[in-house]
Amino acid sequence: MIRGFSKKKRILTIASLAFVGVMASAISIGKANAAYVGYFNTYKYVANIELDSNFTSAQAMNIYNSVAFHIKTANNGTARAGYSRIWAYDLTNNTNNPVYNKDTGGVEFQIGHGNCMYVGDGSLYIATQETGKPSIVKYNYSNENGTYYLSNRKEFSVYSHNQSIKQPIAITGINYASELGGFLVKNGLDVYLGNFTNDTFQWTKHYILDTNLTVQTNNGIENIDVKNYIRQGMFYRSGILYMPMTNNNQKNQSIVVAYYLNQNTANEAVIPEIQNQFFRITSSKYSKLFEIEDVARHNNQMYVNVNTTDASGRNYDRIIKFNDFTY
Length: 327
Description:
Elements: E1 17-28, E2 43-48, E3 55-64, E4 67-74, E5 84-90, E6 95-101, E7 116-120, E8 123-127, E9 136-144, E10 147-156, E11 173-177, E12 182-187, E13 190-197, E14 200-217, E15 220-225, E16 229-231, E17 235-237, E18 240-247, E19 253-260, E20 273-282, E21 289-298, E22 301-309, E23 315-322
Parallel strand pairs: 6-10
Antiparallel strand pairs: 1-14, 1-20, 2-23, 3-4, 4-5, 5-6, 7-8, 8-9, 9-10, 11-12, 12-13, 13-14, 14-15, 16-18, 17-18, 18-19, 19-20, 21-22, 22-23
C-alpha cells in the first residue's frame, strides 16, 4: 500500500503474533486439505528497509537463493511518484543493495503499485495492481559480480473469468506453483492458475477464496470476515496459498490466512471446511499501523515485510521472521 494512495498505507510493527488453528473455507476448483495447529507470538527483525527518503512505501517481497528481493514505492505528491526501486537483501551476509535497470541505465522502475513479485530461474515477475494496464511485468535478472540487474521488460495482461470485463484486471498477487504446473495470480478473492503466452496470461483453472473464517483461538471460537480486511500480496509453497491482509477497522492488526489448493478436484466449485494455518499480529508498539505487505517462506521459516507507524506518527519499514515456526 502506498502512502498517499486512496487505500492509505499502514506502516506496521510487530508487537504480538498469534498463530492458531483456523477453520477456513475455499470455493475452488482446487481441493483443500487438512493442516496442523500451532501458536507463535515472537519474531525477529531481519532487515531495516528504510533506504531512500523518496521511496518510503514497502510493497512486494520474494526470496530466492537466500536473497530477499523487495520493492519500495515513491509517495504520491513527490517528484518520483509513479516510480519504484527494487532492492536485494542478502540473508546470508546481511547486506542490502539496489537492483539496477539495464533497460534505462538507472535504478528506478515503472511497475505500478508493485504489490507482489515472484523471482526464479532468471526471471522476476511483478503484479502491478493496475486496472486497464498490463497486469504483470516481467524482467530477466542477472547477478554480475554481486550486483543485480533487470532487463528485457515484457508486459502481460490478465483477463477475468467475468466475460463482461473486457480490459486487463488488476493483479495483486503472483507466485509459481510447480506441482500445479503453472503460475497463480490473484485479483481480489479470485485466483487463476495458468501460464504466460505472448502478451497474455492464459489461465486454465479458477479458484474463489471464501471470506468467512471460523478460528479456534486461546479465547475460544472467533468468526472472521475477510471482507473487512485489505488483501495484500501472496505466496505459494507445497500446496498452501498464504495471503496477508490488514484489518480495515483496526489498522494495527494484520493476519496471514493459508488456503490449501490442489488440482485433483472435479471441475466444480466446492466449499470444503478445512483445518488451516492462521497468523494474527496485533501491535501495541505500532499502534497506528501494522501492515504486512507480502510473505515468503525460506529455509522452512516464515518471513514478512511490513509497514508500521507508532503512536508518534513515525514510520518504519522492516523485514521480519517469526520465531519457532518451521514447516
